[in-house]
Write a structure and sequence with these properties.
alpha/beta; 3-stranded antiparallel sheet; repressor (chains A, B); Rossmann fold; DNA-binding transcription factor activity (chains A, B); about 220 residues; 9 helices; Arc Repressor Mutant, subunit A; DNA-binding; homodimer; 10 strands
DNA sequence: CTTTGTGAATCAGTTCACAGCA
DNA sequence: TGCTGTGAACTGATTCACAAAG
């Protein structure tokens, strides 16, 4: 056993991991503006966080700044990209090519950030003639073949809620170990398989909650 | 001043607020299955959380359960819906009718959860002839009129990143106080305006980070 | 006897404030 | 002198474990 855990084996807090992509995007923006160096204050402003949090977050990756100066934009950008793992190319399959699946297939932000959509699958044979984002929509039955062929470890679910769990089960069986779920349902997956969800209507409901309280506060003000 | 803050003025932790929509969905599912009563254990399982957390969350709303028995599904569902504010109808405008805007306009989960899309706006005149989800795509210039006419307080941004901040500014100026941002950029808004973001590629990047570490762990195992 | 509702304990995340280095 | 990197203090969220209620 070495005294220090080597390389990228340090454990980074979940909250920090969730912000690294934001910093990466901010740094890309600064680089495009021709900025070569930035302080924690400037980068924090572009990323929409406070500078103490930014510095603490970066400290989990290592000491990539220079005291009295700041950070080299390009160097830091590379270090964060490497830490996240987006310097390599991740093949991805999307299952469920309805409105949302369409939008995801065409989303350029995946391609530009190290993700390559290798296949679009749908259970409905009527969709198998479609070509979306330059890819033919294929049968869900082809999942195993595609996963094996392209060594896919990340799957995206954009099916209706009722189909989502069975799609997830089949993904796991075929060897996928990370799932991004857009279907409005809770998925269960075995230990070792990561599931993240994006729920469009939940975010709106959270806004509605706060909006309702604003209205309440105004009423209270008027009454007082 | 009363000793106890009245009605819904109690303050509920942010983490709890974010889970209430999940409980609401789980309860709707149970109700559809014909379940009339459930324990915290059962509801927690449907929502994908542990039962202690569920009970603590519900305790912020009030005492809606019966000791020794559990919760009445329909009654609890209504109480949570009321607390979130989705018993009323929230008019919403969507700006940016590209692939994602299309998908959002057609998303049935909004309608069924108390949100009514009253207008689709786009800056591109070529899109103004389109009809999406039964609504004509209108000019972004109509924003103020529509917000005033329908008393809109929630706006959804699905434009490219470069346009997002100016759309947000214009929304705020027109009276919108809650914004859901799908554009991959950090928005700034004045005090009193809530902004939430949904970033499709950030979620994938978080999965990639964990996926990369799994691969690393396997390598370490092989070496040891 | 079962299951809720909740103080107390624990754990994670954020902010503060300043020592240490360029 | 200026800005990073980080212990220490603080704040918020989660989990535990049990008293209170039906």
């Amino acid at each position: 056993m070495t005294a220090r855990t080597p390389d990228s084996a340090r454990d980074i807090p979940e909250a920090t991991v969730a912000r690294l992509p934001v910093y990466l995007r901010a740094l890309t923006g600064l680089a495009e503006d021709g900025t070569t160096t930035c302080s924690s204050e400037e980068l924090a402003a572009s990323a929409g966080v406070n500078s103490a949090k930014l510095r603490k977050d970066l400290s989990y990756l290592g000491s990539y700044g220079t005291r009295g100066v700041g950070y080299d934009v390009e160097y830091l950008r590379y270090q964060i990209a490497r830490e996240i793992g987006v310097t390599q190319d991740w093949p991805v399959v999307i299952v469920g090519i309805g409105n949302l699946g369409h939008a995801l297939a065409n989303y350029s932000g995946f391609r530009s950030r190290g993700f390559r959509v290798v296949a679009l699958l749908d259970a409905d044979p009527d969709r198998h003639t479609d070509v979306v984002a330059g890819l033919e929509v294929r049968s869900f039955e082809d999942l195993e073949t595609i996963v094996a062929e392209h060594d896919v470890s990340i799957g995206v679910i954009a099916t209706p809620a009722v189909a989502a769990q069975s799609v997830a089960d089949r993904m796991v069986a075929s060897g996928i170990t990370s799932i991004l779920n857009f279907a409005p349902t809770v998925l269960t997956a075995p230990e070792g398989v990561d599931v993240r969800k994006v729920d469009l209507s939940i975010e709106l409901q959270i806004l509605a909650y706060h909006e309702q309280r604003k209205a309440g506060a105004i009423e209270t003000e008027v009454l007082s």
